[in-house]
Design a protein that fits this description.
The protein is an alpha+beta fold. 21% of the residues lie in helices and 27% in strands. Helix 2 crosses helix 3. The longest helix is centred in the middle third of the chain and has 14 residues. The protein is elongated. The model has no long low-confidence stretch (mean pLDDT 96).
């Protein structure tokens, strides 16, 4: 039984926090192991690359219920490839496709109660994004990054 109390028929396209989101950090030239967290807050240095030079990329996709009750996403591998391409353009370390897919799977699985029923026409909107986290004052790419993926239940857009 779900403990989520959402009026599925009144969903708009606004942010509503869910239970878990995925976080992975890039430091010393490599990606660390990603994990789910219940903390929706991002803590950054005032000189972080994202704040000084807007070094950030994002994607958007949806998980939704089918008429027969299954949960599906539409070609998340294509979102992973676009995020990788965008990251390369901004001299950011690409998020590996397997990490991206793991993030999608884990967030969807951990937040299944936030996926609107088929009849509502809604979905669990997923927002994967990558941004520079270490202090950068000179004009150059950051050295450290964070990849996050959160979701929010939404109605049609």
């Amino acid at each position: 039984m779900s403990n989520v109390n959402i009026n599925w028929s009144a969903l708009g396209f606004e942010y509503q926090p869910i239970a878990k989101r995925y976080v992975a950090n890039y430091k010393d030239g490599k990606w660390g192991k990603g994990e789910l967290t219940d903390n929706p807050n991002v803590v950054l240095n005032e000189c972080a690359g994202i704040l000084q030079y807007c070094q950030q990329v994002f994607e958007g996709l949806k998980a939704y219920k089918t008429k027969d009750g299954r949960t599906v996403t539409f070609r998340p591998d294509q979102n992973a490839k676009r995020l990788m391409d965008s990251a390369k353009r901004l001299e950011m370390p690409p998020v590996p496709e397997d990490m991206f897919m793991e993030a999608v799977d884990e967030v969807v699985r951990a937040n299944k109660d936030y996926i609107p029923p088929f009849e509502s026409g809604g979905a669990l909107y997923l927002r994967p994004y990558l941004f520079g986290t270490n202090p950068v004052i000179g004009v150059k790419p950051a050295d450290e990054y964070q990849f996050r993926l959160f979701g929010t239940p939404v109605g049609s857009y």
